[in-house]
Amino acid sequence: MKFSKTNRLWSWAFFLVLLKVSGMAQPVPDGRVFEIPFEYKNHFILIHLTFQRTLPLTFIFDTGAETTLLTSVELAGLLGLTYEREIKIVGADLDSELTAYLVRNIHIRLGDLSLPYQSILVLEDDVFHFDEYTGKEVHGILGANAFRQFVVEIDYQNQVIRLIPPNRFHPPKNSTLLPVEIHRSKPYLTTWIKPASGPEIPVKLMVDSGAGLAMLLHPNTHPNLELPQKVLPGNIGMGLGGSLEGTMGILPQLTMGEFKITDIPVHFQDIRGGVDSLFLNNRNGILGNKILERFTVTLDYYRGSLYLQPNRLSKLKFPVDKSGMQVIASGPDLKTFVVHMVLEGSPAQEAGIQAGDIILSINYSSFRFFDLDSIYHLLSRPEGKMIRIKVMRDGKKIKTTFRLRKLL
Length: 408
Fold this sequence. Notes:
Helix content: under 10%
Number of helices: 5
CATH architecture of the largest domain: Beta Barrel
Number of strands: 28
CATH superfamily of the largest domain: Acid Proteases
Largest sheet: 6 strands, mixed, barrel
Strand order of the largest sheet: 3-4-9-5-8-7
């Protein structure tokens, strides 16, 4: 397979934010409103689509990504896709060099909506491992090049995305309007947070429906953005180049228009030296699904507007893990649940749980009835709740117990 001139691009966050491969936005077909149902798994939006008119696949719906990405070269080979050129990418850790391939004229179908002539990137190696974090087989990311010609309404409560032609859009009733900046097809909201100490400060946050966290802040982008006194090591997720590590703490308050959201579990990660702030559009962080899911979120790309309508989750406290262990899905059917990490000094560590343990049952419920959402729900229950857990380690079954307690 031959390729033309190799391009080298820097990448930050989840993938190639600088590569302009999509061309102009496609015209809105038929002037119709399209409703796309989705699954919501471990705070990720999963949509089912048909790829190249034949293959049913599952993608992450991602407002924080400019370009659609297929994470499987095997699927690309199965479909006989023709690579236009090879692209070398430096990963999110700014050390790893990865390879992707540009493919044009891809046909994607979302329900009744046909999206022809899409340009996508095929990643040589799947470094995201969304399967492990969602418990579902995920084949890629649907970026804004596929839907930015619409007004996008994400109804988290009813698990449906509505794609509305701009000329048919009317602002939702009982909603709060916030201005956003659209830069390289990604929305940025400038708003206010109250950090660990001192007065409120303004921050610019990318509105990112592809992030399964509440908020990510870069402390070294603002002189008054201080870490809370108590923080824990926190795995932020997977980006180009592998796992993104940082710390986790509680942010006292976020203000978005009339809404004040308090006691938010936030990940903190410094931006490494040498990264141009203009590359990140001078952002201070990311606003993710654990906050967005408290609203019906309507994004008008044409008018630079974001509308928020609170739902039944808006007044609830954030669920926070009180066990100190991170669990991922594995196995051919993604029904094997493995302890990925155990926090030192946590209830799980004190009970003898180790990374690599395979969970057989929790509180007498078999793994056959689990999914990742139900496991994290159990591990986020009130302080003092007893967890009885059975694991498999080196072929031996081990039973142990611990009580949940606040770690932050």
